[in-house]
């Protein structure tokens, strides 16, 4: 009977060691949960950016005003009936 208790004690120690220091340990689980939370936050930011870009693309497809505004500010384009003045500050 004494050897059975000894065997059970050794098994308990081995299982506890595996639980705290093994491949699928509790600290490893906590680290993975932190990594999952970080990745979810990054995914939410990427989804928000994707939605904003999709709205901008839809606006450019639908509205000529948005396309014209973008051409003016990013490419410096003007219409044929407009005069362009550039003010240089010193």
UniProtKB/TrEMBL annotation:
It is found in: Cell inner membrane. One of its GO terms (biological process) is FtsZ-dependent cytokinesis. GO terms for cellular component: cell division site; cell septum; plasma membrane. The keyword Kinase does not apply. Residues 22-90 are periplasmic. InterPro entries: Cell_div_FtsB, FtsL/DivIC. Pfam families: DivIC (PF04977). Residues 29-70 form a coiled coil. It comes from the Bacteria. HAMAP family: FtsB (MF_00599). Part of a complex composed of FtsB, FtsL and FtsQ. This is Cell division protein FtsB. It comes from Halorhodospira halophila (strain DSM 244 / SL1) (Ectothiorhodospira halophila (strain DSM 244 / SL1)). The gene is ftsB.
């Amino acid at each position: 009977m004494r050897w059975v208790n000894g065997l059970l004690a050794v098994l308990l120690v081995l299982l506890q060691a595996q639980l705290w220091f093994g491949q699928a340990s509790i600290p490893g689980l906590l680290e993975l949960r932190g990594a999952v939370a970080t990745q979810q936050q990054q995914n939410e930011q990427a989804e928000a950016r994707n939605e904003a870009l999709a709205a901008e693309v839809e606006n450019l497809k639908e509205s000529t005003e948005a396309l014209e505004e973008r051409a003016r500010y990013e490419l410096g384009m003007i219409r044929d009936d407009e005069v362009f003045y550039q003010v240089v500050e010193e």
